Queue: 2 jobs
Job 1
Amino acid sequence: MNIQQENMIEVKSLVKKYGTFTAVNGIDFTVGKGEIFGLLGPNGAGKSTTLEMMVGLRKPDGGTAIIGGFDISRDLNKVKEVIGIQLQSTTLFELLTVEEILRLYGSFYQKNVSIPELIEEVSLTEKAKSRIKTLSGGQKQRLAIALALVHDPWIIFLDEPTTGLDPQARRTLWDIVLKLKEKGKTTVLTTHYMDEAHVLCDRIAIMDQGNLIALDTPSGLVKSLESDSAVEFRFEGDFLTDELESLDGVKQVGKNKDTYVIYTDDLQVTLISLIQLTSMKNLKLTDLQTRTSTLEDVFIHMTGRSLREE
Amino acid sequence: MKAYWQLTLAQLRIFLRNRQVLFWTLAFPIFLMVMLGSFLGDGNGVSVSIGVVDQDQTSQSKEFSNLLAKNEAVHLESSNSKEKALDQVKNGDIQLVVVIPQGYEAMMKDSANTKTFEVPVYYNETNLAVSQIGLTIVNSVIDGISKEKVNYTPSIVTNSSGIEALDLKYIDFLVPGILAMMIMTNNMNGVAGQIAAWRERGILRRMQGTTLKASTFIAAQITARLMLNGLQALIVLVVANLIFGVSVNGSWISLITFVVLGTLAFMAIGFIIAGIAKTPESAAPIAGFLSFPMLFLGGVFFPVQDMPAFIQPIVNVLPISHLSHVIRETMNVGTPFMELGSDALILACWAVGAFIVASFTFKWE
């Protein structure tokens, strides 16, 4: 494959343990130059820990990673020069202005990009002279990304960049990430939003309980799910999963809170038998909808659990 | 180098934009100084209030009162009722009552009389120190009168003359103490709180992800705090000068050197606290636990010599004792730097030792 020709990142059996709990259980993957690589999984899957080991904020208990040609266990300072990071739940100096903090972080590195241009790129020009505490959530997050770009790094690490943002702010952020790709930057991001992974990522690694359970392109992952359609609905009253599984064409039955999802490779047949079953039992179906399978379904299929279990 | 200046600048901006912290870190020491200085500012001199009940009412008895009143330390209050005067002693309004009984003048004029005449003096036993001084004064006056009466010529006299080398009042003692206190709390408590909070909020962690070196970060912290401390110390000195006329008698260069040494020592201790405190909430009590006893043991408000002997060894190793001592000596007496070398050395040891410990306990996250 083309992208395998120049690897920007090689992760080699990284392990992280906290006492007896294994947070990351020996994972391997590579990221090619110019790729947007997604680490996907529910909270506690080990995404952030993996990312933090790659940027040198946590010491691995086993394995290593080669980032931009430098080994994180031996050449961490060289690694730090070629990477830019945005961490989950970082607060910044609230009393400094956007411009001041960018100059401050720029001063930590040998090489710098033009600060006004950088502010323009993340659409913060109007806020350049405002204090950070006056920024909205989305603006703060764009500033965090700008801080990661201040020294023109090759590889950018984004840890849940859109968590907690409204849809409009998320879209603005996606545009910024896609622009980075146009500039030839390599991006690694973690997320638990399926739609985000689908829109942004060239390849996705799905993590669950410290293990890497799948790695493919978004469409490749969906294809691996043999059933191409999903039927979602709710009932009033109890229902037995067994009876749903015995319907025609059903591959799998999932339940997310009070919503049932059945996966099928023959939508029509399944729907007909579902309607027959409910009218026979005199049950009222609500919120019935059908759709093509998504990454979310891939995740449920692989782990039996929803991505965002509340 | 660029990172060092930018970080120093950033820290100064944060200080100056945090108006509330800026105000209260200055308001507290100035308030303390003005309050204590106004109440206790002249507390060095002793004065005795003596009540005189003149039952004789003659020129001789008036002469006696005048002799008493001549003494600088005596505040005389004449009274015509012995009972009233004794009540005043009990209430603590006056320390001593001298009763001049009737027949005093008659006795004085009767040269043939050899019987000793008694002048009753009543004093307050609960305030013994002042009462004793009062008694001594009364005795010396009576002694003088009786010697004069018998035409006694002393063969030896004391020739005492007061030496007013430095007119030092409590406020002169207090202002250097307040400076030392400010340096201690602003740095020790300030550094501990701020660093622990920055760590909690992930600010330090984010910086750890860059090529910034910890030494650069700490050097910038020190520089910014030195500038701020210097400024705050200057403001306190100006206020002390304007309100109480306190001035710096010694060299400004020594004073600045000691402010720098003290800042370094207490910042280093602050870094240690920030290192061992698990949360910003626990940093403040730990710093308070250390700074509060130091306020009382370290010669900030009271002289170290007044402490009980068994505490002295502890007092002598505390950095605050040495800091308040050297600032006081420099400001009040103008002692040259070299004579304060041992104190400076101890402060420097604290600074170096604490920075070494801090470098082991410091954590970015």
Note: The longest helix of chain A spans residues 167-182.
Job 2
Amino acid sequence: MFRHIPLILKNSWRNRRRTTLTVLSISVSLCLLGLLMALYHAFYLREAPPWQARRLITRNRVSLAVPMPIYYRDRIRQVPGVQEVMISQWFGGVYKDSRDPNNFFARFAVEPEKLFVIRGEIRVPEDQKRAFLAERTACAVGRRLAERLGFRLGDRITLKGDIFPVDLELTVRAIWDAPDNDEVLYFHWKYLEESLPPARQGLVGTFSILAERPEDVTRIAETVDAMFRNATVQTRTETEQAFALSFVAFLGNVKAFILSIAAAVTFTILLVSANTMAMSVRERIREVGVLRTLGYTPQSILGIILGESVLISLAGGLLGCGLAAVLCAVVRNGPIAFQQIRSLSVDAGVLATALAVALAIGVLSSAIPAWGASRTPIIQALRHTG
Amino acid sequence: MTEIVIQTRDLDKEFRRDGFSITALHRINLEVRRGEFLALMGPSGSGKSTLLHLIAAMDRPTRGEIRVLGQDLRALSDREVARWRNRHIGFVFQTFNLIPVLTAIENVELPLKLTHLSKKERLAHAETALRLVGLADRMHHLPRQLSGGQEQRVAIARAIVTDPDLILADEPTGNLDAASAQEVLTLLAKLNQEFGKTIILVTHDPHAARFAGKTRYLEKGELLPEGQVPD
């Protein structure tokens, strides 16, 4: 079969315009498919990084919007295998103008002394860390967020409350780095708590739990939820990764959405490619007759035609994956709504799947015309005028 | 007595079209000996090309026997027939039928790709064949860069590159001007006389037939007795 590669290459490039257009149409479709697969992978298949594998989130079982009593923290802390528990309260609020999506970022009220234990991957200069811990109105912002909004040490940030009936005046005391999830602002939970009216005090949205070992995570989640099963406020504990994914679910059945679009895209490419290959083969039936006269078997002709189709599909697939990688980088580095997007990339798994789809498209789109051509009786093929 | 390389006995070929049966060849009894240059003549539709296709095992007879180079062609499977054809038959078409995206030498190399020869050996054989047909200086030209006569000579080089026992030429001069036709016929005669190739030339041109050592006539699917010329 390798002996026929020069013929396959030259046949592929025979009608340059058609081949170019076919490669481009496959590449655009596979770019979209690659992007969808990268999204699917980022949302549903990505393994939690080591620093995230030990973390869990506990929230009210009814809804994230319904708080839990603060004393749950101490009960959770007593569960065997729990290394640390931290209050983590989503503040919401408005920074400057809420109509500008660029001004949207996550703001959490936390227990600052525990933050650097729970999120051990955070790197911050020691003097900034001390300044953040020491001042009640201090806040710490992630590097990417600071760069995006131009925050510098000492800057004052006003967050206008919406869920909570308070406006917070914060001072940037630390700018931290982390491998991911660095578009977050953390401030002192006590500052928020003291600013709230008494009726709103003593309640918490979520607890961040750090397990001693990744293997303990499932058991801890079950134990925590079992502990409050008969309480007035029941809990739901899940890994941090699953918790983050639950926000994606707010959009609807994203999994089915992604899969159905991917299937539609694949089917469309298959039709486009099949049409092109059918035309290409029909034009060359006579040459098939010549090759058969020279001694080529139907099997070798089938291989030559399939090889040509696979070559075109793979070229389109590679180009499409390259385009998808560029798009992923653009999306990954832009403003994002979900943290999972930060890991969006065409990795080896996505690349292999996309190329396997391209290979399948190459084979399936030409299988019927190639089979028909290779089985055409020699005399009939030689008389063909296509 | 030289060896008989083609022998047919009561060979029939019928085609079915739209429910009708058309007899293309009827009770053909033909013997061709090694080293012969036979011209098959007859008007259009007389069955010349059909007979050539049966000899090349490009088609199967409806009835009768056909042995070529001692092989009963009816007994071979499709795969065996393809291998046999590659080894023993060189076919020259009226319309040259070169692959347009391949250069002259690549076209000539095509049948050798089915052999066990290395790339270097294949190219050496193809070069020799092209030199033999006088196209050493056109090896890397594409078919569209060649004249009709040159294209047909490339096709002849492709037909002889495997050193086949039989060369079958189906109206090889039908698409050529007189000068090119003369060149091609001279070349075929040379292959017969100097290299001892057995050649069957299908033609309806009496001038072309004169290059052959013997001429047989077909009329309405029947082979006329040796020496008999149609009215």
Note: Residues 2-47+252-383 of chain A form one domain.
